[in-house]
Amino acid sequence: xxxxxxxxxLPDIDPAETxxxxxxxxxxxxxxGPARARYLLARLLERSRELGVGxxxxxxxxxxxxxxxxxxxxxxxxxxxxRHIRAYIRWNAAVMVVRANKTADAIxxxxxxxxxxxxxxxxxxxxxxxxxxxxxxxDAVYIQGHAAPGxxxxxxxxxxxxxxxxxxxxxEVDTPDGEQPTAGRGLSSYPHPRLMPDFWEYPTVSMxxxxxxxxxxxxxxxxxxxxxxxxxxxxxVWCFVGDGEVDEPETLGAISLAAREQLDNLTWVLNCNLxxxxxxxxxxxxVIQELxxxxxxxxxxxxxxxxxxxxxxxxxxxxxxxxxxKMNTTVDGEFQRYAIEPGSYIREHFFGPxxxxxxxxxxxxxxxxxNLPRGGHDYHKLYAAYRAAVETEGMPxxxxxxxxxxxxxxxxxxxxxxxxxxxxMTAQQLMELxxxxxxxxxxxxxxxxxxxxxYVRPPIDSPVTKYLLDRRRELDGPLPTREVRVxxxxxxxxxxxxxxxxEGSGTQAVSTTVAFTRLLRNLCRDDRMxxxxxxxxxxxxxxxxxxxxxxEFGIYAAHGQLYEPVDHDLLLSYKESTDGQILEEGITEAxxxxxxxAAATSYATRGVPMAPFFAFxxxxxxQRVGDLIYAAADARARGFLLGATAGRTTLLGEGxxxxxxxxxxxxTTVPVCRSYDPAFAFETAVIVRDGLARMYPDGGGEGGExxxxxxxxxxxxxxxxPMPPGVEKGVVEGLYRWAEAPEVKGPRATVLFSGSAxxxxxxxxxxxxxxxxxxxELWSAxxxxxxxxxxxxxxxxxxxxxxxxxxTPLVAEKLSGSQGPIVAVTDFMxxxxxxxxxxxxxxxxxxxxxxxxxxxxxxxxxxxxxxDAPSLVLTVLSELVxxxxxxxxxxxxxxxxxxxxxxxxxxxxx
Length: 910
Ligand SMILES: Cc1ncc(C[n+]2csc(CCOP(=O)(O)OP(=O)(O)O)c2C)c(N)n1
Ligand SMILES: [Mg+2]
Description:
By secondary structure, the chain is of the alpha/beta class. It is built from 37 helices and 22 strands.
């Protein structure tokens, strides 16, 4: 028995009427069959929605187009000219890849992705995507990475690129004879703003990142609008997604946010070619149906474009619902097969088994059956879908377009499992492509005599080019284009914002996290810069003590606060508002990172520089969303990442999956990320102030450095000292002398500390002086990474200038002014200080926290990892012994004094 639980929870106020309705349904099923019953029910549901009855929408609909033919709008373009444009683009995109792979060092590239999606892009370029030439930022378009050749081919047709450029596809290093190779002007394999800063705006290709980034970009646009920072009403976000790409958890992971926040400025185009790299996406199922249910369930507007126009008349004659039934029950693996088999096979297997179906296509030849198009190749249907998408209000839209992978490339490509990887075409295959694209006039057989197939482009004054350029002019200029043109300058904060941190905390013990929160508050309060600061937190504000900011600056909520918060009577209540400043993202580091990226690239994408600060649990940053951080670096993001609760031993009690002793290693893998591990509040302030000035000089984005910052913050309290004079430069460079050695008679030593290891360094210095008579000077190492980068540059210069006086790396120069063996101590892995080992002028020994974290008191953990004061004393003494300055007896004493076990397993080995 089937029971709809909800209906049975309610009283039936008229059982006779209920029976009448149910009996009628039974009669329809008996007499006219289930197809008719389904039809009637669908009409009833549609009607009830029209009448505002409030019936829930079903999550799936039959396997047909969402927009019926009679609802398709008038197509305003020139059909024939647009077909020509597509033919030229298809040709040049293919030839560009084929030429790149003709040479001995075949360099790769992809043919089939764009071949399946050419019409999807072209309808956008000719009718929808808005450029920037009117001085407005226009649309954001996320392009499937492997479709890049098609985008270059269009830029070529638009005369933005020429043949020489196309021949530099995937060749990005210039190696002029006898000169050093330099970063060249080649075309990047995929959309990489880092490599082509005047062209690409939105990096994609690492599957799943484009989709989530696009959602948060659309949300960020609404944020700017609601906070009255920028008018974003005329900017739409488009994202092209592969159907294989949806299996990445990031792809669908944030779609409910898009519906919840009613992002009607967002359109996804899902290229359902039913294939990924190795084979079918859902051979035994139907990816379009699966996705429809997911998106409708999440609250999106779903537009399916499954069938091309030629199917309309067949469906119109489907009185028994047999065609619909066949469409519904055929799995994707079979549809893929129909894409490669001849018409006779389709007649036999798709239409054949049912005589009513067979009769339906009797008037069609095998050739016509073979060419019954899929919706994603039907320009008219696509135009209708895009128009409906942009006219939809209150919800995001996804267009599910069914296509064939490798479409038009011929038998060897279309629908083949290996098609993604095929990069070469024979002369014969190229001639077939030419014929298929009707390019015989411009590509006579003689064009194929040479080994390299030619590019073809109509002259600038030809009707095709004129039309193409006119369309783009009408839509405000070419895309993609990246430019840094500041529309709304950012005035940096007054020095007063930093003053509190420079002055220290007096007698109060505070953590660097608390100090940073005060700085963030001061920046938000700054008259000039305040509104441009974007604090981003994924459900961890209370952990970091940042909840104090909620009330003062408000949490951004698209619909305001529809309830009175439980803590409304408290000073620090949970305040949500439409113009709230804080992005409290909930438990999604990926989402928070995407928001950060949108704000951190705003100086370029919108000409509105912003200062985003994303504070996360340091363990869940680089480790959790490292690929998104890398993509942000690609996008030339500028801003601050804050790894709070840092340190393997400082975050006490949490353990293995929380205690971070390696994010300072991971962050160094991103070339443009400046990584700092400050110990003091003033260091934090110096780094942030310097960073803002570097990224946004003169209040703008032009001339600024395309770098971002990673700072680790701790939750251990100590008195924050005032800033000593003259240290700012050293803080930024990565190292400075914090304290001279005490005046004692014995030998000298140097200890470098970072972050929370400061405490151990001070205690060790005191013991070394008092007990062993060793005078230890203390240095604060704010960034080993910065020291290393500088040293590598110097090292290279010296290598290339053997006759010149060698230059000294900064780190060596600084440390040559210190005395005795040098011991570094950090709450991160030893690899962090080891970064400078090569350039340290004397004996060097780092102490750090290698191995898994575990829970205990800070004291116990620091002993366990051998980064506490006794371990430091021991190490300094041991270095002095090795140097021959003292005798081993002092070491024996220290081992006994501190009770250090000398035998037993190495604690950090797993
Ligand atoms: C994170 C990640 N994993 C793997 C790949 C390698 N890869 C490149 S394209 C591709 C298949 C893409 O299939 P689909 O998303 O359906 O795109 P299509 O080319 O079919 O349009 C794969 C696995 C990648 N680029 N990124
Ligand atoms: Mg695919």
